[in-house]
C-alpha cells in the first residue's frame, strides 16, 4: 500500500491517469452528515450540552433564582455549545469535501486529508476480506481487511479507518449514501480479479459489518 502527498491530479481523486488496462468503476465521497454523526458524534455532543444547560438552569432555579435569572445563568453555556458543535460540523464538511474514494478494476484509491492530503492505494492483491456495515437509512461503511504482511497507518488514515482496529488497521470507505450499491461494485471487481463468482450479502441495519461476499482476490 502506497501513501503520498498529491500536488495536482491529472484525474480526479487519482495521483496519475489510469493505464489503458485499468478502468474506473466508481468514485464517491462520504456524506458530511454521516461523518458528523459517525466520527464526531455530533448528536451525542448536542445531547450532552443540552443536559448541561438543563442541569445549570435547574441548579440555579433550586437555589432560589427566578426563572429569568436561572435562564440567564444557563444561557452562557449556549455559545460554547454552538461553537463546539459548529467546529465539529465544519471539520466533518471539510473531511467530506476533500475526500475522494475510487474503485477501479484493480484497486481502491483513497484521496484523504484536509491540511496534509495523501493518496492511499489499496491493490486488490493485498485485500484479505471486505465487509459492509449498512444502516437503516441505506448509508453505510465499507471496511477492508489487509493481508497480514501489509500494515496501514491508523493515524494517517483516520477517520477513513475502521474504529478500534489498532493492531491491524482496516481502511474504510466511510459514510456512503449508496453503500449497498458500492459494495456490489467492489464485490464484482474483487471477484473478477480473483476469477470467481461472488454472492452479495446485505449488511444489518444496526451497522455491524458483515462480509460483502466471497471477496478474496487472487494474490
Describe the 3D structure.
- This protein is 36% helix and 22% strand.
- With 219 residues, the protein is of the alpha+beta class.
- The protein has 2 domains: 2-30 and 101-211, PH-domain like (Roll); 37-94.
- The strands form 2 sheets. The protein has a 5-stranded antiparallel β-sheet with strand order 1-5-4-3-2. A 4-stranded antiparallel β-sheet has the order 8-7-6-9.
- Helix 2 (42-62) runs antiparallel to helix 4 (77-97).
- It is elongated.
- It starts with a strand and ends in an 8-residue tail after the last strand.
List the keywords:
alpha+beta, 5-stranded antiparallel β-sheet, 4-stranded antiparallel β-sheet, disordered N terminus
- The neighbouring-strand order within the major sheet is 1-5-4-3-2
Strand content: 15-25%
Secondary-structure element string: EEHHHHEEEEEHEHE
Report, as a whole number of angstroms, the end-to-end distance.
Answer: 14 Å
Poorly predicted regions are 2-6, 197-208, 213-219
Work out the helicity level. 25-40%
Which fold does the CATH topology of the largest domain refer to? PH-domain like
The second-level CATH architecture of the largest domain is: Roll
SSE order and pairing:
Layout: E1 2-5, E2 24-28, H1 32-38, H2 42-62, H3 67-75, H4 77-97, E3 100-104, E4 107-112, E5 118-123, E6 127-134, E7 140-146, H5 154-157, E8 172-176, H6 179-194, E9 210-211
Antiparallel strand pairs: 1-5, 2-3, 3-4, 4-5, 6-7, 6-9, 7-8
What's a quick, concise take on this entry?
Helices cover 36% and strands 22% of the residues. By secondary structure, the protein is α+β, with helices and mostly antiparallel strands.
Amino acid at each position: 500500500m502506497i501513501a503520498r502527498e498529491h500536488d495536482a491530479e491529472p484525474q480526479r481523486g487519482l495521483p496519475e491517469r489510469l493505464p489503458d488496462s485499468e478502468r474506473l468503476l466508481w468514485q464517491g465521497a462520504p456524506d458530511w452528515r454521516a461523518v458528523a454523526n459517525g466520527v464526531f458524534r455530533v448528536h451525542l455532543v448536542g445531547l450532552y450540552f443540552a443536559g448541561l444547560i438543563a442541569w445549570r438552569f435547574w441548579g440555579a432555579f433550586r437555589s432560589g433564582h427566578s426563572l429569568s435569572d436561572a435562564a440567564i445563568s444557563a444561557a452562557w453555556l449556549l455559545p460554547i455549545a454552538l461553537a463546539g458543535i459548529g467546529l465539529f460540523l465544519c471539520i466533518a464538511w471539510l473531511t467530506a469535501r476533500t475526500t475522494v474514494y475510487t474503485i477501479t478494476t484493480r484497486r481502491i484509491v483513497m484521496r484523504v486529508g484536509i491540511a496534509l492530503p495523501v493518496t492511499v492505494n489499496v491493490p486488490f492483491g493485498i485485500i484479505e476480506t471486505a465487509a459492509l456495515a449498512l444502516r437503516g437509512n441505506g448509508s453505510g461503511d465499507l471496511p477492508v481487511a489487509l493481508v497480514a504482511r501489509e500494515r496501514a497507518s491508523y493515524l494517517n488514515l483516520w477517520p477513513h479507518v475502521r474504529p478500534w482496529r489498532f493492531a491491524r488497521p482496516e481502511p474504510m470507505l466511510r459514510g456512503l449514501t449508496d453503500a449497498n450499491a458500492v459494495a456490489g461494485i467492489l464485490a464484482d471487481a474483487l471477484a473478477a480479479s480473483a476469477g470467481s463468482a461472488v454472492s452479495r450479502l446485505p449488511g444489518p441495519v444496526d451497522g455491524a459489518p458483515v462480509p460483502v461476499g466471497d471477496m478474496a482476490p487472487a494474490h
